[in-house]
Amino acid sequence: MAEVHSRYARALVDVVADLKLDGAAVLAQLRLLVDLLKSSVELRRVWENPAIPAGQKRKLLDAIVARENVAKPVRNFVAVLIDNRRIAALPEIAKQVELEMDRRLGLAEAEVTSARELSPEERRDLEAQMVRLTGKNVRAHYVTDGKLLGGAVVRLGSTIYDGSVRGQLHRMKERLSAE
Question: Which domains are delineated in the chain?
Answer without folding.
Answer: 2-103 (1.10.520), 107-178 (no CATH)
